[in-house]
Structure formats: structure tokens, C-alpha cells
Amino acid sequence: MPLLPTWPHHIAPISRLPHSRGPRVISLLGKGGSSKTTTAIQLAGTGAAIGRRVLILDTDPQRSASGWRALREDTRISVKTCRPQDVADLVSRASQAGIELVLVDNPPVRSAASDAIAAAADLSVVMVRPSMLDLVVGMDWITWLNAANHQFAVVIGAAPPMRAGTEAPFVREARMALRQEVHRLWRGQLTLRHAVIESVGVGATLMETEPDGAAAGEFCRLWIGLMAELERTR
Ligand SMILES: Nc1ncnc2c1ncn2[C@@H]1O[C@H](COP(=O)(O)OP(=O)(O)O)[C@@H](O)[C@H]1O
Ligand SMILES: [Mg+2]
């Protein structure tokens, strides 16, 4: 049975993307509260909606992704609770299980395992909220990723809404600061919306609760952007 009875309009461009060989690995990094877990869940929802087999590796001791999984009965999105040092091993096992995309949900603070996780990932994604405190921590991750020569992109999340097609001043300023240090800055934004909180709160994803809504559209656009980055870094 398909996950969705109809194809929501956001899905149409995604469903044309070619399938990849073996699991691709995206690792989500950033300050506590920067929306790593929320983004992992919503990207997993987008992947599941187009029939991709997605695994979230929950390496954060706070176990938020695992808590979300416990609220769900649907088994199409797998969540595995694990230690950061076990990520590389679990990624190689995911291949045998037919997983196509692994999303690593990281703890907020770097550890001895962070380098191995970034090395196991095809792409690290630094989640940044458009505020001074968040930018400082985001920049620290960016400096570290640049120094270690890891592939990464930066995504602005939990952002105030755009007005008449124009970004809020906070977002514009954050973008200007990030552009100095970052080659791959996602041109979209993930907007703060009740729909995002509500879907996670009931153990669901936006593609299950409001697949045609604006919030789902943003995560679908992010999915498309990240798939393009994976193609580029292949
Ligand atoms: N786009 C969004 N809209 C509304 N709330 C959001 C959004 N992204 C994140 N949040 C909220 O921000 C808080 C932190 O998000 P979370 O995903 O737990 O961050 P992290 O995993 O980086 O610590 C949570 O309460 C979450 O519901
Ligand atoms: Mg988290």
C-alpha cells in the first residue's frame, strides 16, 4: 500500500530523481536546538513518501529521534539508537539491509567520534538558526569541517517567515555572515511553523500530516537540494 493515497504536488519533481546505489549518508550537525532532529525526521518523511528506505541513526544521548519513533506504528522509517563511535559500522550494515539513505542525528557537542562520522558521511549538513548565539556555534562547526576537508553544506532552519518573498532581516544577516566562510549555503530556509511541531509531536512527518502544506514544501525543496549535493560530491 502506498504511503500516500495521492501524490502531493511537492512530490512531483522529487519522484523523478534517479535512485542511488548503496546508502548515501547525510550527517546533521549544529548547536543544541538548531533543528537537527526535526530536519532528520522531516527528510526521512520525504524519502519515505517517495518509497526510499531511510534510516535515522540517533547518536544523541538525549534520544529525541528515538522518542519520536516510539510514538509511531509505521515501520517505513527506521530509527536506530546508537553510540557515535558505532556509526561507520552501522552504515556498512545498512547497505546489506537495503537502506538507501542514512541520516545521522548528532549530539550538539563534538566528540572523539565526530571525525569518523564526518568521514563516513557523503555530506555533513550544519543546521543554523538565524541568531547570534547560533551563528557562533555554527561557525565553530564550519571551521572544523573546513579544516578537516569534509564535504558540507549549511542550512538555515527555524527561521522567521518570509514576507512578500523577502527574507526577514535576521535571515539576511545570517546569510551574509555565513557566505564569507561557506561554499555551499542552501538558498532556501526552513521556517518556524506550528505544523512542523505538531507533526513531530504525534510521531508523524509533514508528508503524513500536511503533505501539500508550505512546511512540507520547504523540506521537499531541501531534499531536492541535498540530493543534488550528493550527486555533485559522488
Ligand atoms: N521549522 C520549525 N518550526 C517550528 N519549530 C521548530 C522547527 N525546527 C525546529 N523546531 C523546534 O525547535 C526545537 C529544537 O529542534 P530540534 O530538532 O530538537 O533541535 P536539535 O535536534 O538540533 O537539538 C524543538 O522544540 C523543535 O520543535
Ligand atoms: Mg536533537
TrEMBL record:
Name this protein carries in UniProt: AAA family ATPase
SUPFAM superfamilies hit by this protein: P-loop containing nucleoside triphosphate hydrolases
InterPro entries in the record: CobQ/CobB/MinD/ParA_Nub-bd_dom (IPR002586), DNA_Partitioning_ATPase (IPR050678), P-loop_NTPase (IPR027417)
Residues in CobQ/CobB/MinD/ParA nucleotide binding domain copies: 30-74
Organism: Paradevosia shaoguanensis
Name of one Pfam family that matches: CbiA
Domain of life, per lineage: Bacteria
